[in-house]
Amino acid sequence: MPTLVLASASPRRLDLLRQIGIVPDHVDPAEIDEAPLPRELPAAHVMRLARAKAEAARPRHPDAFILAADTVVACGRRILGKPEDAAAARACLTLLSGRRHRVYGVVAVIDPRGRIATRRVVSQVAFKRLSDRELAAYLSTGEWRDKAGGYAIQGHAATLVSWMQGSYSNVVGLPLFETAQLLAGLGYPICPASC
User: Domains of the chain, with CATH numbers?
Assistant: First the structure.
């Protein structure tokens, strides 16, 4: 079995991979600057970060498959990062209240020969109009910490989402179908539970 390295510190990504039977041999988060470039659009931003994470981890594991990903929540052209505090999380959720937004996910894989392949996935999510009480209740859960856009759809925020289109696992943090297809396409053995 070839070596697989996950270039991400996200426990959600690791859990999602395990859900489909993929267990990385190593977890080696890439330390890169994730700040958007001036006038950088969300789709370009998430693509740049996923590729940069994979390329940063490659020199440490030259003979392995490197898997990296990034997820960005965008409201229009505005990129909503991970809020630093409850006030920033409140601002994100207030902006998302009663409207649709996009979640961009990119998976980047580098194979042992140095070939890189990427897939971009876009999911759309709509939040119900949130009352002050609902905002306060959600913020009190603490789920907003370390979450793009200030929410976790797999947690209490599921009660705030009125509609979604596209990949659910992408909104959680890693589009599983596309990840498995990308790995298999580059020669990493993927075996569903039935084989």
Answer: 4-185 (3.90.950.10)
